[in-house]
Design a protein that fits this description.
11 helices
């Protein structure tokens, strides 16, 4: 199957799941019966097709082509994979209706924004490990951002007379909040490793510390934001709307650090 066709098929399958989850789990009021067993495994089909396409476009020709489109698609693909694995251990079914539409759009990103050129020095194992850790960090913070949005929706809907079935079936807000900070802690550790490995990689390759540019600046600021959020949680017990706002602020800064920088360079400046 050609990569473009595979991306299209994956996108359509993600979209079909998004519609199904929305109609069966979100619409209406009051609790509903548990989702059928196949619903948890249905995401495997588009995920495998998505992964197959990424393997070709990312590593075709023995190089690594991590342009804007491939980066977005790979990060969201990893996000879906992490979500699917986590769904066996935590009650996070509510994220399906939020994540599947994002995955449907992101799957087509390599078609809309093809990689202009392969990455240099991508053959180095240390560089590939650095990229993998960074993508995992982005994936976890994507889940954290969606989870924070879900918490905001739940908190708002609890004050209404009618409660959507998915909201009624979700764990209590305090439990969701605990899970949110577990995800943020894990993502924060990976983000720290990404910044540290970036410094080490830069010194080993260029003989200079990590280059100070827009990507580095926004990456460091996002690290500070998440560090402040975690410190505020430990010291002052930050929770609720404060936690949601700081989580989303850090995620926006992460988007500006990598995706935003790539968009400016590749789409606007054509570099």
């Amino acid at each position: 199957m050609p990569p473009i066709l595979a991306y299209l098929v994956a996108s359509l399958l993600y979209a079909a799941l998004a519609v199904w989850f929305w109609r069966t789990r979100w619409q209406g009021a009051g609790p509903r019966a548990a989702a059928p067993a196949w619903a948890r495994f249905a995401v495997v089909a588009p995920l495998l097709i998505h992964g197959y396409s990424l393997q070709i476009t990312l590593f075709g020709g023995g190089t690594v082509s991590l342009g804007l489109g491939n980066a977005i698609s790979a990060i969201v693909g990893l996000t879906v994979l992490v979500y699917w694995v986590a769904s066996f251990f935590y009650r996070i079914e509510g994220l399906q209706a939020l994540l599947m539409p994002v995955a449907s759009v992101a799957a087509l990103a390599p078609v809309a924004f093809p990689a202009p050129h392969p990455l240099v020095h991508a053959e180095l194992p240390a560089f590939r490990i650095h990229l993998l850790i960074g993508m995992l960090a982005y994936s976890l913070f994507t889940i954290a951002a969606l989870h924070a949005l879900l918490m905001a929706v739940v908190e708002r809907r609890l004050h209404h007379a009618t409660v959507p079935p998915m909201v009624a079936d979700l764990p209590p807000l305090l439990t969701m909040e605990t899970l949110l900070f577990r995800v943020i802690w894990t993502g924060f550790i990976l983000l720290t490793l990404t910044l540290v490995s970036g410094v080490v990689f830069s010194e080993a390759l260029f003989g200079t510390p990590l280059q100070f540019n827009h990507k580095t600046l926004f990456g460091i600021i996002s690290w500070v934001v998440y560090a402040a959020l975690l410190a505020g949680r430990q010291v002052y017990g930050w929770r609720g709307k404060v936690a949601v706002r700081w989580t989303l602020a850090g995620f926006v800064l992460l988007l500006l650090a990598y995706v935003g920088t790539k968009f400016v360079l590749e789409v606007i400046l054509h570099r």
